Amino acid sequence: NKKPVRTISRHKIPSWGIKKREPIGCKVTLRGKDAEEFLKRAFIAKDNQIKKSNFDEYGNFSFGIHEYIDFPGIKYDPDIGIFGMDICVSLERPGFRIKRRRIKKSKIPSRNRISKEEAIEFIKNKFKVKII
Which domain holds residue 15? Predict the structure, then answer.
């Protein structure tokens, strides 16, 4: 449903066969219900476990999936081959728009930021994920 954005290499790496400005990947932004459904499937692929070290101090977290065939209901396609992906999640609460708006931008006050502990509790309760 979503249109991917290609990522382009910045440097030439001859040992990997990568040229400068060559497309080497893609990324997609998901929000709302689409993001929740995708995260549920991604956590199932990771056996509903995620490390505590994957969270940063501002409530964001990332984790990797080695092969796309780990997702439930997806079969191997020989045309695609095997590839993995990195999943990066940024959590926000109402009021975070003030750091992105064009007029009168300002910083998020510390009382309104999402802490590491709040993010862990949210993920535990919302997705029933075990934090190891």
Answer: 1-28
Q: Are residues 20 and 39 in the same domain?
A: no
Q: Are residues 80 and 18 in the same domain?
A: no
pLDDT class of 84 with cuts at 50, 70, 90: confident
Residue 1 reports pLDDT greater than 80: no
What is the chain written as a DSSP string?
-PPPEEEE-SS-BGGGTB-TT-EEEEE----HHHHHHHHHHHHHHTTTEE-GGGB-TTS-EEEEES-GGGSTT----TTT----EEEEE----TTGGGGT-SSS--PPPGGGSPPHHHHHHHHHHHH-PEE-
- Tens digits of per-residue pLDDT, 12-47? 999 989 999 999 888 999 998 999 999 999 999 888
Query: Is residue 21 domain-shared with residue 60, that is, in the same domain?
Result: no
